[in-house]
Amino acid sequence: MLALLLGGAGPALAYTYYVATNGNDGASGTIDQPWRTIQKAASTLAPGDNAVVRGGVYQEVVTFQVSGTASGGYVTFQSYPGETAIVDGSTLPVTSSAYAASPLFLLASNSYVSIQGFEIRNYQTNSKALTPAGIFITGPSHDITLLGNRVHDIVNTNKSGNGFGIAIYGTSASQPISNLVLRGNEVYHLQTGESESFTLNGNVINFDVSGNRVHDNNNIGLDFIGFEGTCSDSNQDYARNGVCLSNVVWNISAISNSSDKSYDADGLYCDGCSNVVFAYNQVHNCDIGVELASEHKGHGAIGCVLRDNLIWLNNSQGVSIGGYSTSVGRTEGCLITHNTLYHNDSQLQGYGEFYVQYYTLSNVFTHNILFANSQNLLIGNPFTQNTNTVDWNLYFTSGAANNAEWEWKKVTYTGFAAYQTGTGNDAHSAFADPLFGNASQANFLLTDASPAIDRGDPAFAAAGERDINDDPRVYGSRTDIGADEHTPMDDWRMSKFTATELLDASVSGNLAAPVGDGICNLLKYALALEPKSNETALLPAPALADGLLTLTFSRAIAATDLTCVAEATATMGGTWTSDASELIEGIVATNGTAYTIQARDITGTNQFMRVHVTRP
Length: 616
Description:
Layout: E1 16-19, H1 38-42, E2 50-53, E3 56-58, E4 62-64, E5 75-79, E6 85-88, E7 102-108, E8 111-116, E9 118-125, E10 132-138, E11 142-147, E12 150-156, E13 164-170, E14 177-183, E15 186-188, E16 198-202, E17 204-210, E18 213-217, E19 222-225, E20 240-245, E21 248-252, E22 266-271, E23 274-279, E24 282-284, E25 288-293, E26 300-302, E27 305-307, E28 310-312, E29 317-321, E30 330-332, E31 335-337, E32 340-342, E33 354-356, E34 360-366, E35 369-372, E36 377-380, E37 386-391, E38 394-397, E39 405-408, E40 411-414, H2 416-423, E41 430-431, E42 436-438, E43 443-446, H3 488-496, H4 499-502, H5 505-508, H6 521-526, E44 541-545, E45 548-556, E46 563-569, E47 583-590, E48 594-601, E49 608-614
Parallel strand pairs: 1-2, 2-5, 3-6, 4-7, 5-8, 6-9, 7-10, 8-11, 9-12, 10-13, 11-14, 12-15, 13-16, 14-17, 15-18, 16-19, 17-20, 18-21, 19-22, 20-23, 21-24, 22-25, 23-27, 24-28, 25-29, 26-30, 27-31, 28-32, 29-33, 30-34, 31-34, 32-35, 33-36, 34-37, 35-38, 36-39, 38-41
Antiparallel strand pairs: 39-40, 42-43, 44-45, 45-48, 46-49, 47-48
């Protein structure tokens, strides 16, 4: 029977194609007859299609000529599961380009494209006129996702040259580059001359830059740029309205960069961006930890939020705001809160933990911990154009307390009381050792006796904010000062994980399952289980007693920052309840660290039980 169906067009079929180093671009693109080049896929896919690239080395420059659609779905390019497709430029010349860079992966005027799990490497030149890049996105592109890619060894050795690892250049005045997700990528071992490792420049909006690792590069790490003339419309020529979350940036220094040779490469840099939230990041051993500023007079870093970050051991400054001279821009209306700054200005450059430069207006610096090194300099401020609010902070130094220094509007104050009296700043702040877990090993969790605990402004409202460990931002009577909000789970973490593991959310985070047993740390904490052991045999155990369903489980005595209750339901799709009219729960044993709880259905109708763990 042949049926002919007339009417509107249905959704297009989505196909999966394969690419392999032993393939042929004239083949059908099936797993048995794969294509040879990634470029073939990048010229062929239709909305909703996937290109799965087998492991191996591909020596090619790829220009993406396809896009997805909102209705048809993304075009997706990904490494084959368990394998890595490597795009290697070591045998390819860096050639001139119509764009601001000559990349191995180019997306110009593309949309609804996802690129996942590639290694992009070894692209080098010594030409001032050429700019190598790993991935370059430009033009009126939008809805682009980069997930889990590794970009490394992109190099320009020319003294005045440029290069990029990943660069987003919003050049179009009619269509901003928008709806970007740049997550879980690693960018490292770059020599980028006068340019940046990972940058969003020009008309770029609504972006999520999260969970990336940027390290061991000789210029700026993550940069959000405005007003360089990238977009022809100066009113749109700046990165804005995005988030920069949970990135780890380290070993970013220009001291060996032949175009600079200074301690002035930022880990995170807002150079004229606006309304960007920088939160939960770790920045260490860079030249400047975080800078909110603008290099262009008449413009500024406007309305940004820097909160809940760890910033330590950076070479010249921890956090910097304002223009580096009177010929550049400003910082205005930014909030810098709940950060922990430790032993920055490690090269003793005379900038301190928090450096306030030229033309800083209506910024708020609050609820931060500043712990200076033997230089004793907590705040540097060699300019008088300053209308900022500074309060509810905690200060300390590794040197003598009476030698602690603050510079404010070009006046240096020695001793906390002299600084408070002379400036009117920090009326509600304190000078005391924050009592970190082990700062020398970068464990900046607060211990039980820390003076930072419950020391914040009583009027503070969290408004959805959480701390660096994804714990509630207010636990106890008031918010804590610094990136960590101390909870009983912090004590548990410190007893179970090393200092290195504490910095790695994939190991010690609430939802991490470090031994792969499927039981996240939050549950193991609640149920008094060991996070580094396979504990599946110790999960809540159901049984029948006198024909009624029972559930036996452990509950940690110290886990007072969560609730852990048994619930029952008659059907999986029904309503779960812990009501005493249906369920009796009681302690049947204790060992000093955990209770053994037995919950029993008393209705005879409930067929399912669970342990429900909740945390604010």
